[in-house]
Design a protein that fits this description.
globular; alpha/beta; single chain; binds zinc ion; binds adenosine-5-diphosphoribose; Rossmann fold; 9 helices
């Protein structure tokens, strides 16, 4: 398999999705047995769901917290952390994943655009930052309230909400000469647009995963395979 060459003038922007954590045992969303097969998005992952039945939303994310805490990073997470170790500031990772497997593999220059499982925040925009929270809430009575009186909600970007830190993301994509997209179906926006933004800036764009994503035609190269099998040894760093 041809490697991906990274020269000393390259700046790398990486976008990861649920597929990179699949080999760690965490289900993806849109697979036949995925998270959205057993749970309706409109019941657990929209602002309306939160208003209607916050207990159900917390049950869903509490279970995912427990699963996320049990999972271990796989060779794909480690390969990316190693790449960051080699190119430092010329590396930036944006993940759609809410698990912390990238951090636990050693990545530091990363941003969670869809939030983080192990944090909670006030349901009101009262200005209080998210707080670390590993609790499994069996009932809504156990969920705390913010000083302002608002109920604490998962620090998760629901469908219909704006992803986090879009300005920073756009800036990093603008600077990138190489975009690597790993394990995401290309079906959720704005993340699915990133490859187009990178192409407009003249960057090389590579997709890595076992199936072609919906936005496959926007990539200059597709590397077919499971992330944990393909990523280790894929990069030829100058
Ligand atoms: N290695 C790499 N990719 C894989 C692997 C693997 N071992 N196994 C599966 N994949 C790929 C699948 O082929 C699929 O294209 O991972 C992708 C997972 O797609 P989705 O389930 O749609 O997940 P994702 O793209 O991350 O979803 C985006 O949607 O539900 C929302 O907010 C949620 O962040 C999520 C967003
Ligand atoms: Zn508050």
């Amino acid at each position: 398999m041809a490697g991906i060459s990274i020269t000393s003038s390259d700046r790398v922007f990486v976008l990861t999705g649920a597929g990179i954590s699949a080999e760690s045992g965490l289900p993806t969303f849109r697979a036949e047995d995925g998270l959205w097969a057993g749970n309706r998005i409109e019941d657990v992952c929209t602002p309306e769901a939160w208003r209607r039945n916050p207990g159900l939303v917390w049950t869903f994310y509490s279970k995912r917290r427990v699963d996320g805490a049990k999972a271990q990073p796989n060779p794909a997470h480690f390969a990316l952390a190693e790449l960051e170790g080699r190119i430092g500031d010329r590396y930036f990772l944006c993940t759609q994943n809410v698990d912390d497997l990238h951090e636990r593999a050693g990545s530091t220059r990363l941003l969670h655009m869809h939030g983080e499982l192990a944090k909670s925040r006030c349901e009101r925009d009262c200005g209080k930052p998210p707080v670390e929270d590993h609790a499994f809430y069996a009932s809504l009575d156990e969920v705390g309230r913010c000083a302002c009186g608002g109920r604490m909600r998962p620090h998760i970007v629901f469908f219909g909400e704006m992803p986090l830190e879009m300005d920073r993301i756009q800036d990093e994509i603008h600077k990138a000469t190489l975009m690597l997209v790993i394990g995401t179906s290309g079906s959720v926006y704005p993340a699915a647009s990133f490859v187009h933004w990178a192409r407009q800036g003249g960057a090389r764009t590579v997709y890595i995963g076992p199936e072609h994503p919906l936005n496959a035609s926007a990539f200059t190269q597709i590397v077919e395979g499971k992330a944990g099998e393909v990523l280790p040894g894929l990069f030829d760093v100058e």
